């Protein structure tokens, strides 16, 4: 049986944990940024090569360009697509899409461009999904085990629960759906990408301006991906904590606001909240996007004289928010 930490030790432990979170999150951020930048560079090169080759040649009509594309370019793309299906772990949607395009005998100019860039886009989001999923699993497992240590309990069997935590819904959608779903980041980026390609196709002279606009969209997509990852990371940490509390008999958790916390998080700092009252955005982090607050579990015990081990903490009350607002 591991000896539980005292209040000051736990507080210092929480601050150290929050700092460690920030460092690990930063490492993942850098890895994702490098993945995005490399993919965007390749897509920029593809767009430039395509238009230099087929739009800059004087006297080359669209019909002639389309005719030429039906030859070598289609074969080259088909080989690349086949290789991608063989070696990459794409989503079922992607594999089906690649198979469909790989069997086409002819392809128009704009379709070829879309096929080339969708393949690259699928590579990007597949890599992004793997990086994010690994990060979420590692963080959930680490937090579950950390909380078990604070409570002086065992984290045996924790690995079996982590996958359920990572795949759980958050405000109606799970993490995979937020990336790959109909309204997820992949589909939104794809929509913007193909919209730009259609505008480029009808106005080849203005493609540089459209290309610049498209790259800005990718920057927005990257920022949204980072925001999603940070919020989902906070969510799985919170869920891992709650799972550990329930598994180890904790009656309350102590909210620990991050340094420089917002007014809502700061109001909860040091407060003892019953485990059954936990609600993200109200009594449990994440209170907002990019929230890095934390908590630690507590098993309330009463002394013979009527005192409680929770007497040194502020206590959560149902009317706390109303009182705090007033």
From TrEMBL:
The UniProt entry, under InterPro entries, shows:
Phage_head_morphogenesis_dom
The Phage head morphogenesis domain, residue ranges? 208-294
Alphabetical list of NCBIfam families matching this protein: phageSPP1_gp7
What's the protein called, per UniProt? Answer: Minor capsid protein
Specify the species: Facklamia hominis
């Amino acid at each position: 049986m591991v000896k539980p930490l005292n209040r000051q030790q736990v507080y210092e432990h929480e601050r150290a944990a929050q700092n460690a979170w920030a460092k690990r999150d930063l490492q993942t951020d850098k890895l994702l940024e490098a993945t995005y930048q490399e993919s965007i560079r390749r897509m920029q090169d593809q767009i430039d090569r395509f238009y230099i080759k087929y739009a800059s040649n004087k006297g080359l009509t669209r019909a002639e360009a389309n005719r030429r594309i039906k030859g070598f370019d289609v074969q080259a793309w088909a080989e690349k697509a086949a290789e991608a299906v063989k070696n990459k772990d794409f989503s079922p949607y992607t594999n089906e899409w690649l198979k469909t395009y790989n069997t086409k005998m002819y392809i128009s100019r704009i379709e070829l461009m879309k096929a080339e860039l969708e393949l690259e886009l699928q590579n990007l989001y597949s890599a992004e999904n793997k990086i994010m999923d690994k990060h979420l699993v590692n963080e959930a497992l680490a937090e579950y085990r950390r909380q078990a240590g604070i409570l002086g309990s065992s984290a045996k069997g924790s690995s079996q629960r982590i996958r359920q935590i990572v795949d759980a819904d958050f405000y109606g959608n799970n993490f995979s759906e937020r990336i790959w779903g109909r309204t997820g980041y992949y589909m939104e980026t794809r929509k913007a990408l193909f919209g730009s390609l259609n505008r480029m196709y009808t106005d080849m002279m203005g493609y540089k301006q459209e290309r610049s606009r498209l790259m800005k969209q990718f920057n927005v997509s990257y920022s949204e991906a980072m925001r999603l990852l940070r919020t989902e990371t906070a969510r799985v940490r919170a869920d891992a904590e709650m799972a550990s509390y329930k598994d180890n008999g904790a009656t309350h958790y102590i909210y620990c606001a991050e340094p420089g916390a917002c007014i809502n998080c700061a109001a909860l700092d040091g407060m003892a909240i019953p485990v059954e009252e936990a609600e993200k955005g109200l009594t449990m982090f994440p209170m907002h996007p990019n929230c890095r607050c934390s908590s630690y579990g507590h098993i309330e015990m009463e002394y013979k004289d009527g005192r409680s081990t929770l007497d040194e903490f502020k206590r959560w009350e149902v009317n706390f928010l109303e009182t705090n607002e007033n």
